[in-house]
Amino acid sequence: MGWGNIYKRRMKVCTVAFLIYLDYKALQQREKWTNKTKTDALWENAHKRNAKRVLGLIVELEGLWVKLGQYLSTRADVLPEAYICLLKQLQDSLPPRPLEEVCQTIQKELGKSMNELFLDFVDVPLATASIAQVHRATLLNGREVVVKVQHEGIKTIILEDLKNAKSIVDWIAWAEPQYNFNPMMDEWCKESPKELDFNHEAENTRTVAKNLGCDTKCDDNTHADRVDVLIPEVIQSTEKVLISEFMDGIRINDIEALEEFGVDKQKVVEEITRAYAHQIYVDGFFNGDPHPGNFLVSKEPPYHPILLDFGLTKKLSSSFKKALAKMFLASTEGDHVALLSAFAEMGLKLRLDIPEQAMETTSVLFRSTTPAKESHETMKSLADQRAKNMKVIQDKMQLNQKEAKRFNPVDAFPGDIVIFSRVLNLLRGLSSTMNVRIVYQEIMRPFAESVLQGNISRGPMENDHWVYDTPAHSNVEAKLRQLLVELGNNNKILGVQVCAYKDGEVIIDTAAGVLGRYDPRPVQPDSLFPVFSVTKGITAGMLHWLVDTGKLNLEEDVANIWPEFGSCGKHNIKVHHVLNHTSGLHNAVADLIEDPLLISDWEECLNRVALSEPETEPGQEQLYHYLTFGWICGGIIEHASKRKFKEILEEAFVRSLQIEGEFYIGIPPGVESRLATLTPDTEDLKKLSGIRGRPDMPSTFQPEQFATALPVLFNMLNVRRAMIPAANGHFSARALARYYAALVDGGVVPPPHSSSSKPALGSHPHIPKFPAQPSPKQQKGNRSKKIAAAFRNMGTNTYEKTTQDSKDHDIGSHSRNTSSDSNTCNASDTVLDEVVVNPNPQKDGAKIFSNPRIHDAFMGVGEYANLVKADGKFGLGFRRYYSQDGSLIGFGHSGMGGSTAFCDIKNRLSIAVTLNKMVFGAETGKIVHFICSELNIPVPADYLRFAETAPSDGKPLIN
């Protein structure tokens, strides 16, 4: 092709693109002054005009533009019908090239005459596409084949078309920044030239056929990853000629023929989708061009799909394949943490903290397909969602409308995801064209899970590093690790942390397992676990700290501290009623169950609690305030101190105990890389029915509903970041154990945590700081100083790539709340006279409490006995713990799911267990029972029944 023709080709492309752009921009202005009843007709006419322009240009120029037209013709889910109707002509065939040209290419490439190669060669091509045309032929041995022959001079044309297409995309990105297709274009420019070598396509075809089992005879269709598709066998190839097996089939877009043969279109498209799921997730090697022209359906029952044309095929690295699988599964689970982890692993970097928008965008990518007749509604829905996301970005970055248009929230976009996204879009378009509905989450899930199952071991048998490699602090810890291995091998533990202090020293600090069902990263001592009601023990401690510092009185009316709270008959509720679960507000704000995301709104929850009405008189009944406990306490804390809840938490405990980065009620941005993800134990869920109707539980507490809904809800990043003082603590076991080690000694801060625990406890900033983010190239020019300042304030993507032993990333662990059994011993009103605060605190040791009877205050005994319900399970904010003989031995709190933290006062022991697989008592009980037995100290009565020799009553451990 001469330079003159190249120049003319470029001018035609630019002219048509500019005309279409001006047409739509003019229509946007005209629409403002047009009656709304006429706007649909205006847009429809514009679509028809411009679709004709596009089709005319493609037919005239051919080359790469045909491929673009074929791609657009499959997007019936998002493109106007006018484009689909015209461009689908390109799926059939282009005008054929001269037979003489075809024969010359064959003879030149194969080095033989046509008569020496074929018994018969059909002059009329089966199809003519952008790069080649295909003829049917018969080899000398009588075998029926198809011969694919590359067009003469097409390589020069394709490479020039790529340059022109790139120029158009650059121009669109400049004129309409919200439509920046550069990542896709860059990847296409890299991959498309590979299609020009048919040796490459031949090898790709053989590889995919082998991966899908198409080159072997197998009648076993029972395997989950078995795919029922056909791929023609490759017989011979050169750079410009490809000879393969002939398979007679129906074009997949020939709806009439499919119906005539009785083909189940739904089943065919589902099987094609399964084939691509297998290629992507299992093989990491997939065809990047699934347009309708590349599919046939066999004419014999059971009507298998036939996959053709493997010129554009993408190979993924093992790590990227796993990241794609994690991204898909995180999207289906609504797991923000795993999603951000997947982004980091695949190299997709965001410029700002927008986890909700990232999840919504990913969910759109994996959404179920819609038939073509619903395309208008789909387009409108996607446009509305895009506008909503841009508004969030605009507000977060403090941009005006023009600046927001030009702001790209993605800092780095991996090329591999471009072809992956293109495949999903083409498959979605195929489904729409066939008028079938495909649920990607159902079809692709088994394949994505299979990728990670090999990486996420179900237990230590498959993972030599299942227990995190740190030195054991004691013989007890070494033996405990063996118990954890047993529990892991029985698939009862996914991820776990156990920490214990004895006499002020660390005797256990063990981490094991993985961070989540789809997150194979190891649990470390600084991992953050969501612990549900274990949080109540910290919130209660904050109220006692305010009492200890003279800012609060346990016998004071809450309404005196928090005036708004005094409405609706709550004027007689005192602080001690709240701590003792006797305020009568156990069922308040129960409507949050209907709209659970409201629990993320701190002010709204406080307002609702303040306006709620008690069901019983204060002090009359002790009924577990599973959520309202936290909001009432939180309101008291903020009003009594005149400061924010988190400020008090940091001053009272975090800084004093040196547990920065591992002790949160509502996490800050920047710790996501250390978060454990919740998953329910399906077997233990069956036990929860026994809790319903328990006399100490409020009527609105529905355990089965909570256990199934809570993992999904509390895996959401906006909920993790919310302040929910009854249930939203994110801690490491070692931070919790250190907290209770201080409480067990009456508030004396223990010596520094063990130096052999890495990363060191407290070595990370509590509120992460982010480096300034330089403005990218595309943001130069009209970028204002305000945007640069916003970058400095917002920092970079809040998902940190975790590196072991790094002292720059945050440390933290989630603890899960375990619950206590209903069959507990009665409370004792006796003062623990034999238990005294550690008389020998460390020299220069600080104290977080000065009250010498602080233990009595926690447990509601001695002079505090009149402030609690007699014989109740709870003291003043803490769960009472008893020995088998009924002696009161300590206090703590557990929560739904298995995590727990408590202390034994006489033996100066504190224990914390955090879990991410939501078991309901047994595993936690075995761990606690084992530690106490090894130390030869009383096992709390709640955990006695979980001994290996004790018969299990099947009841879950719930507060």
Cα radius of gyration in angstroms: 33 Å
Counting helices, strands and paired strands, the structural category is alpha+beta
Average pLDDT: 81
**Termini separation:** 80 Å
Strand order of the largest sheet: 16-15-14-24-23-22-21
The main β sheet shows up as: 7 strands, antiparallel
In DSSP terms, counting alpha (H) and pi (I) runs of 4 or more, how many helices?
Answer: 33
Q: Which stretches are low in confidence, meaning pLDDT under 50 for 5 or more residues running?
A: 218-222, 771-843, 949-954
Number-wise, the strands total 25
Q: What is the helical fraction, as a range of percent?
A: 40-55%
Net shape: elongated
What share of the residues does DSSP label as strand, in percent? 5-15%
How does this structure look, described?
A hairpin with a 4-residue loop joins strand 3 and strand 4. The chain is α+β, with helices and mostly antiparallel strands. 42% of the residues lie in helices and 11% in strands. Strands 16-15-14-24-23-22-21 form a seven-stranded antiparallel β-sheet, with helices on both faces. Strands 1, 2, 3, 4, 5 and 6 form a six-stranded antiparallel β-sheet that branches. The chain has a three-stranded antiparallel β-sheet with strand order 7-9-10, covered by helices on one side. Mean pLDDT is 81; it is low at 218-222, 771-843 and 949-954. The N and C termini lie far apart (80 Å). The protein has a domain at 3-94 and 156-186.
